[in-house]
Structure formats: C-alpha cells, structure tokens
C-alpha cells in the first residue's frame, strides 16, 4: 500500500463563531503529502513550537459558505525496533512536563508505574511491560470525539484510543520516558481494499474514523509507535492519516489565548 496515492477532500461548513482552527497534514514517517490547497486562500498560518504542527486560523467573517482542503497522500507503513542495549538511564531528566491529559506525577499513576517497572532498567522491557499492563488494565469502549485524560482512564477503566494513549503516556512519564500523542484518522477497512484495487481514490470524512495513538522518543531521537487500543507495538500499518502531534495546545489569536485539547477535526472558536 505504500505506493498508492489517495486524494482526500475535507469540507468544513461555516458555523456560528468567530474563528475556525485546524491542523494541516504534513509529510512525515507515516505519509507523504502533496498538492495541498486551501479554499479560501489567504488564511493565517502559524506553527506549533513544541511539535511543529502547521495550524490554519480562519476568520469566519471571511468565509462565504465553507472551508475546503484538498491534498494527495501516499501512505507508508512505519516500523521501528528498540536497541536492546538501551537503558532507562540513557535519558536526561525531566524531558516532558505534565499537562491536562498526561500526568506522570499523579500518585495513582506513580504507584502503578513503579509496581510494573520495579528494578528493571532495560528500556525495551520497561516499555513493553507498561504497554502490556495498559492492555490488560483498560477495556476499549465509550468512544468520544474529544480526548479522554489519564484520569478518566484510571478511574473508569473503560476508555477509547485517546484514553489508552494518555494513560500509557502518563505511566511512561513517571519513569522519565518521553512520549507524544499522534492524532488523525483510520481509513475504514472497506475503503483500504478499494484503494488497493483501484490504486487511486477520493476520500472524505465519511470514509475516515478518528483515531489516536502514542509514540515513544528513543534515546537516539527516533520515534517508536505504540497503539495500545489496537495491539500495535513498534509497527503501524499504512492505513491512517496523521493531522497533528501532541495535545493540550494554547493558541494565540488577536492577543487572546485559546485552549484546544487536540488538533484533529476543525475547531470553532468564539472571541473571548
């Protein structure tokens, strides 16, 4: 599937509010993005300093009917292995800080993480054990269009892909292993086969399912993928569109700050 080019078209209707914010898909280790176009043109673009997301900000007064984004994507499978000689001590201290969704300082998380890790120092073993604990501790359910925090996951134990990811990220953060959320969409299974058959297809939101997973930063700065909700460890198939990395964003628009949980589907904002 890594040789298949797919055309994707998103339309965002004009709704009540003052601003429309969304993240532009970029070329990365999951995908190549080409021929990207936005209608209307002349929109404001800004960069997320932490993860490098390209964020589009539109004033809705300047939009007549809808906002449209068109692009072509070449999907790529992504696979990484962990050097068996890596130790937990290969990381510097305090790589990432807690936020509203991921918190390695929560005492319940600390107790779980320390219990799972024990005296183990091999990095691959630690990551695998925390992943397996997450798989066994949580049950998939209650999918939401937003993002569940680690707290929802630890208290209810039934959560969706986002909750699996924020919970595991919190466990990793406790033992000083850095990670980040990967946000985007799964291409629905029936359309994956059609893309393979016809080699070119036009997709819209109707053929995509919102999804999130995790990446662990290894000591060599490469990213190791983990999708705990679908049992993917180190390997991600070529069936997903990535729109952004990270969560819990603060975006400044015309001297006002706006807090956004994640950059997946378009976000409509009203002036503060």
UniProtKB/TrEMBL annotation:
Domain Transglutaminase-like: 153-230
InterPro entries hit by this protein: Papain-like_cys_pep_sf (IPR038765), Transglutaminase-like (IPR002931)
Organism domain of life: Bacteria
Pfam families per record: Transglut_core
Signal peptide bounds: none
Protein name per Swiss-Prot or TrEMBL: Transglutaminase-like domain-containing protein
Protein species of origin: Candidatus Roizmanbacteria bacterium CG_4_8_14_3_um_filter_36_10
Organism lineage: Bacteria, Candidatus Roizmaniibacteriota
